[in-house]
Amino acid sequence: MFDFMGMMGKVKEAQAKIKEAQARLVHLSAEGEAGAGMVKVLVNGERKVLKIELDETLLNPNDKEMLSDLVVAATNQALLAIDQKIKEEMKKATEGMIPTIPGMDLGGFFG
Description:
Elements: H1 4-24, E1 29-34, E2 39-44, E3 49-54, H2 64-94
Antiparallel strand pairs: 1-2, 2-3
Helix pairs in contact: 1-2
């Protein structure tokens, strides 16, 4: 027989754990770099850019387009890295709470 009340308790427990994990995301960070480390971008788990570091040799007005491209590349790399960390954090928070169904990937459900 299906235990509806037990299932509702599990759902509430999962919601609480997810909320706790989301609160911890602000403390996660990831860095992306481009141009062999000449441009570095740091983002947090809220997907906000915290810091951009530029090598002084890139501060040439003639290289403005290249600098822009490197900043974009480093930012995208940092965002990919933080997305992976967010996914891992949410997976830890819900481990054992959501049943594993063969052939069904719920990994994208949380991030």
